[in-house]
Structure formats: C-alpha cells, structure tokens
C-alpha cells in the first residue's frame, strides 16, 4: 500500500483554562490516502474541528498542549517552524469553513481575496493572478466570473460565497482540502450542489478531502471512509458499508437512529441518544460514552476501550463482543434502514 | 364575518366538517423598499408572501418547507398576526382576525404561541429561566402571583428540565435545553396552536431527535395543533400530517408526507426531495437527482406566469411563462400548482421497462 498522504498518530490537544484542562482531542489516530474522501462525524464538542484545525497548524503550542504526530507527506507538521507551516497551508492543504460570510472579508472584492491567496504563495504579477482567480471562480461554477470577481461578498448568495471559498482554497492546487461543515448553513438544494462540486474537484485536482459534519446523511453519498468521534476520541472508523450497514459502536447506532429520514414511511418515534455530551473537562472515566450507553456492562465505567479492528479496516472502541455488536445492529438498528 | 366555505384543498380525512383552526385566504405580505433619508420614497416591494391559501385543522401538524427566502417565516408571522398583512384574510377558529389590533389580539395570543429557531437569541440573557417561563403568566394574569413558581416548575418538569434550575440563566444551559425552555414558555398559557419556526435547525442530530419526540408527546397530551417550519424536508416529513412546499412566496404543493415523497407532482418538490441526503449509501446511489440550476430569483420582481419556470426542467413555453398555474387536486389530499406535473413514480418505472 502506498504511503498515506496524512497520518495522525495519537494526537492530543488539551487547552488549559481557568476551569480546568479541556481535553478537546484526546488520542486521535487516522490515516488518509491520496484522492480519498474522509467523513468526520460527531456532535458539537466532539473534537472534530479541533483535530483538523491542529492538522492545519491553526492551533499552536502557545494556545494548547499538543502531543502526538501529524505526518503530512512524510513530514511531522508539529516539528515545523511557523514559516514553513505557512507554506504548507495553502499549497499543501487548505480549509473551507462553515460560515462563508464570516470567512470572507466584507470590504474587499471577492476576486481580490482570491488573488491575495494566490500571491501569498506565488510571486506572480497581479494581472496574472487575477486571471487565475477568474478561471478558478469559473471552475467552481460561478456564472459570469469576470463580473463576479469584481463584486463584494454581500452581493453573493450563501451557495455562491461557499463556491468562492472553495475557489480560494483550491487556487494553489493543494493535496488536501479540509471542509469544516461546508454545507451546514446552506439549503438542501445548494448543499447538494456544493457536495457535488467538491466531488468533481477532488477528481479534477486529484486531492484528498476531509468533510467534517454532524449529519450522517451528508457523508453517506460522498465519503469513502467515515470516522465517528465522541468526546475527543475516535469511536468508530470504517468505510461507508461498515458504518451504514454494520456499525459497531453504540454511539454510531444512536446517531443512525436519531436521523429523520425522508425515504422511509413515518416511523412511530425517533430513538435519540439519552442525555447530553459530556464536559470535556470532566470526561467520564472508562468509555466516555458509558453514561449515555444503553448497552454498558461491567468494564465500561472503568476501562477505556481501545480502538480495535478485527478485520484491519473497520475499527471501533467498544467493550461489547463482536457477535453482540453484529446481533444488536441487525436486530435493533438496521430495522429502520 | 365568518370563514368562507371554499377552501384551497379538501379537508384531510378525519377533519371533514370541522372548522379549520387556522384559515388563510389569499394572504399577501409585501415589504416596502425605500430610498432616501429624510423623504423616504418607495422604490419597490419585496413580495415575501404572495397569495397563500391554507387551512390547518385542530390537532393536525402542517409542515412548511422551502429554501431560504421563500417566505415561510413571514407566513408564520402572518398566521400569528405578528405582522399586519397586506392583503387577504386570516381566520382563527372561524373568527376573522385580519384587522385585529394589538388590544384585540391580546386574548388570542394565549391560544397561539411560537417557538423560534435560535435558542440563543430568543431567550433574554439577563432573566432567569423561571422568569422567562413565568412571564406569560404575568403578562396575561392567568395565574395568581404566588402560584407562578410552582406552575413554572411543573412546566419545567413537563419538558424535561430539572425544576431545581429555576434560578439559573440561559447561558448555563446547552442548546437543546434552551430549546426546551422555549417550549415550556410557549406551553405556559395552554395554547391551542403552536407555530414552530425551525425549532431544531440549530441543534445536533441526537438532541434534535429528543426535541422532536418531546414536541410529539406534548401534542398528544394537550391536543395541540402545530404549524411546523423547517428547511429540512426529512424533519418536516417526520413531524407533519400534511406538508406544504413553498417557493417564492407561494405554496406550490400540499400533500400528506408519504404521498409527497412517493409521488411529488410539482417539479420543485421533486428537486427538493432529490437533494435530501439519504443516510444509506446503497439507496443514495439509486436515487435520481434533479439538479436545479441557478439561485432563487429575487422576490422583489418575481418571474411572470409560474414563478418556477426559469429553473424548471419541465417548463414548456410560452404556457409556463404566461399562465400562472393554480393549485389543482391530484392524489387524495394532494394539490399542486403546475401545468405539467410529474408522473407518478409507478408510471415512470413502468415506462422505463
């Protein structure tokens, strides 16, 4: 197997605060190959954004205690000086955020903002960079790109702004695109357009993509692998089939049972996960999910379950024996699917 | 004046012969656009809601879906008369409330309440939860002062909040808990109608499911009528008996949830449904996508004829551009406003063979 593009090993990001140490990320490992799409799913505060902000080098050792390794193209990013990290951001990897209105500068024309991103990394004349920006805007499906490049962000609709953000992110042809809740603020029709666009560009640019979301529906259609996070840890990792047709972690089951589905006749009731996600300062001992888990038994509140993979690709961090997991999924979870 | 007999769509089974709790007749709401600082000139208007007929029967949940800017929130505020409407009539339980002023509306406010989207913005950060939930009692004087606290604590328990948190402030609660506070406040006066404007859009999926279940339980317990607004079709379908699809200020289709999903008639409904992500990779791969080009046109100057014609994959000219389609019946309980409605799925599959 080829060397993965990105490999994260036992990453820990802890923020010291007045109230105590916030363990936002507490031992996350993952690997992502060239051209692959990874979906990262979890509730607010599960550490999914912090993990990838750390990968981008946007959380520094000044702000948090960071441990572990982030290997990108054979280099440990955590050892790099800030200047080199700045070069990798943009040309090596780039990020698209949830709210395109707050991530675009309201005073500058959209085209100029793309030009700024290009010229920060390539010493080319403004005119050339502008032409490049226009062609990028065209590639992400913005109609009349020359005219649009001279407009301000407020003249763009939500979907168009997100396209502009993607154009900016891809203008330096990065190997890795991280999209943090790229469609949460958008309507379903626009969401579908943006996700299709990300799919198409991934092929065109042969980039790897990470899509961070709280919605298991979004990633079903667009991701090769899916990582489910809970309380700063990986709860489950597997390909689409593993997760949607044979999930092994009670938290993933809870997520699957919580979604309302448009393609199924109205079921009597949703079966949500009980309770609330834990505070990241006082993470429950043992398995962090045990207070909310209907299947907990003896070791769950004492022993942290390791992320184990019986078949080498589908991994889950849960003490339940494999046969039980398969039985419970078939009997209780898959009925709805 | 009493409500007219002619209704937009036949009453759903189980509600025939009943008086609708809410009836809208040709409701329009335009917002003026003005220019100038001292002398304001009107230079145009936003056609936010542009001729809506809708009935909501007692005990029913009617869902409203549509993209941003289609007028669903404006319509909600017309129903509860938070806005004065430009044209048309609103009936509540057979009574014309179109021209009611604040004083006349006040007794009716007890019977209709709203739950808002953002549980961060809709709760006063300086008031304790007890005060927030108890305010309706103080405003309407339905409960003597010394009885307010026990009443509020009972409400808190009802919506799954710890009554001991009576003196806490909104910032001490999570998003889901705050939405429960909003629900408790809306229930305080034992209303008959609750208009829920995107009540779960800001919440995580697992918390979203908790709130949806809570709303369903409360509906059963208090025989509530809901108007449920969301941009997420799967949430609306889950909650609603009937779903109304809005586009640019108009209702383009009304149907029971399952009928709507099985056999959408309006091409816009079809496109909207096909864009909803399905959390099952196998089923997702099978589904046919209708991709809409472009953005929703401006409601300042909506397109002529059928408002959907510039984006419609089935539009035929000049008919669709000139002739404004009316809501016409299709399957039982289903009406759609389209000259060239979509075929039933069964027919399409038959033809495909």
| Oligomeric state of this protein | heterodimer
Q: What is the helix content of chain B? A: 25-40%
Q: What is the averaged pLDDT score of chain B?
A: 88
State the strand order across the main sheet of chain B: 6-7-8-3-9-10-12-11
Ends distance of chain A: 33 Å
SSE order of chain A, one letter for each helix or strand? EEEHEEHEHHHHHEHEHEEHHEH
SS summary, helix count of chain B: 12
Shape of chain B: globular
Portion in strands of chain A: 15-25%
Poorly predicted ranges of chain B? none
The share of residues in helices of chain A is: 25-40%
**Helix/strand/pairing category of chain A:** alpha/beta
Specify the overall morphology of chain A.
globular
Beta-strand content of chain B: 15-25%
Strand order of the largest sheet of chain A: 6-7-8-3-9-10-11
Largest beta-sheet characterization of chain A: 7 strands, mixed
Low-confidence stretches of chain A: none
Using DSSP, what is the number of strands of chain B? 12
Question: Could you characterize the architecture of this molecule?
Answer:
- The complex is a heterodimer of chains A (337) and B (353).
- In chain A, 35% of the residues lie in helices and 21% in strands.
- The radius of gyration of chain A is 21 Å and the shape is globular.
- The mean pLDDT of chain A is 89.
- Chain A has helices at residues 48-55, 82-91, 100-103, 110-121, 126-139, 145-149, 158-170, 188-205, 216-222, 240-246, 250-258, 322-333, and strands at 6-17, 20-32, 37-41, 65-72, 75-76, 93-96, 176-180, 208-213, 225-230, 233-239, 315-316.
- In chain A, helix 4 (110-121) crosses helix 5 (126-139), helix 4 (110-121) runs parallel beside helix 7 and helix 7 packs parallel to helix 8 (188-205).
- Chain A has a seven-stranded mixed β-sheet, sandwiched between helices. In chain A, strands 2-1-4-5 form a four-stranded antiparallel β-sheet, covered by helices on one side.
- Chain A is α/β, with parallel strands linked by helices.
- In chain A, a hairpin with a 2-residue loop joins strand 4 (65-72) and strand 5.
- Chain B is an alpha/beta fold and 353 residues long.
- In chain B, 31% of the residues lie in helices and 21% in strands.
- In chain B, the strands form two sheets. Chain B has an eight-stranded mixed β-sheet with strand order 6-7-8-3-9-10-12-11, with helices on both faces. Chain B has a four-stranded antiparallel β-sheet with strand order 2-1-4-5.
- In chain B, helix 3 (129-140) crosses helix 4 and helix 5 (175-187) runs parallel beside helix 6 (205-222).
- The termini of chain B are far apart.
- The mean pLDDT of chain B is 88.
- Classes of the chains: A alpha/beta (337), B alpha/beta (353).
- The interface between A and B is large, with 46 and 47 residues.
